[in-house]
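Problem: given the chain below (147 residues), write out its structure.
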Amino acid sequence: MTRRPIGAAELASALASLPRLDRAALLARWREVYGGSPPPRLSRTLLVRALAYRLQEQAHGGLPPTTRRALAGLCESPSAKRTVAAPRPGTVLVREWGGVVHRVVVIEDGVMYRATRYRSLSEVARLITGSRWSGPRFFGLKAHASD
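Solution.
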């Protein structure tokens, strides 16, 4: 089925109307947009969100091919560890711990935390938590082994 391009005003109107639709109308809209029935027992909230995503995807285009391949790879190998490239100097890492927001700035030879230079993120994580932590894991740069 070929779809005509949708304008910004029309998209905004379609998105705004979704939360006001009853379940029967949402199911009908799903069949129209996706070309099939939704998964059984899908909550109303997820119906609205999935429809909104699909409408925006149709209007603006989907994910780039590189992102699709990366996601497909994760689906094929869910045990693959998620890692992020090492942060460049000047990067600010933020983590809330114990109700306090902690900011660390990456520098050439370590990190700065509260105007003091540290050799590693792990030193800062230990200082903040009082226990041994992987600094990259604490600041969200590396996933848990169980993730």
